[in-house]
UniProtKB/TrEMBL annotation:
Location of the NodB homology domain: 29-215
Listed CDD domains: CE4_NodB_like_6s_7s
Name the record gives this protein: Polysaccharide deacetylase family protein
InterPro entries tied to this protein: Glyco_hydro/deAcase_b/a-brl, NODB_dom, Polysacc_deacetylase_ArnD
Matching PROSITE patterns: NODB (PS51677)
Pfam families xref list: Polysacc_deac_1
UniProt xrefs under PANTHER family: 4-DEOXY-4-FORMAMIDO-L-ARABINOSE-PHOSPHOUNDECAPRENOL DEFORMYLASE ARND-RELATED, GLYCOSYL TRANSFERASE-RELATED
GO molecular function: hydrolase activity, acting on carbon-nitrogen (but not peptide) bonds
One of the GO BP terms on file: carbohydrate metabolic process
Amino acid sequence: MSVGAAVHGVLRRHVRAMGSVVGVDTDQPVVVLTYDDGPEPPQTERVLDALAERGAHATFFMLSARARRLPWLARAVIAEGHEVALHGIDHRPLSGLTPEEITRRTLDGKAQLEDVAGAPVRWMRPPYGRQSPRAYHAIRRAGVMPVLWGGTSLDSADTTSDGRVASAMRNARPGLILLGHDGRAGAEDGVDDGDIPAFDRGALTARLLAGFAERGLSGTSLERALERGRPRLGAWFA
């Protein structure tokens, strides 16, 4: 065996051992819609309306402190057939925390969200997608799997609606996990990410679903996508 082949084998084993979910291997014409930073009225409600109108589903990565303040909205997500997952107790990045703190906060956030939503929580998306190997193991010790993404609608950036749709369509393919937001993290969530122009996130969701439909794709949650697929893992550390 060549040195190159040996190194490649080690890297593949490393990805399998430490991989986060970055997509779904499936023969179904679906993309996984995900929404971060909520729940936040009225934007979460507008997203829910757009999804319902087109029979689509999504996974909502919630901040558990927000869900506790807005339990009725977290439960509405479940009631309409969507999936709830954890984005953290708040939106502080994991980079400033010890592994023990990450595990404790993940366990606490998971328990809080399950209590509010009345549904199991299987996944966590690290705030900003920032994850070190130590943070990865800390999250896994809490009994949840890190989930990242393979495409984005750029809905946390200062750009146009056309630009957001174009970005999302760029990687349109079966099994894509698309990053979106139904809220905007701020001071109450432990961060200051500045402002972006206000826009209707439900209207953006409708445009994205129409764009995917033109390509023969529909939107679904990670949970539903995995009913006829398997998670695609990748080493994601930043």
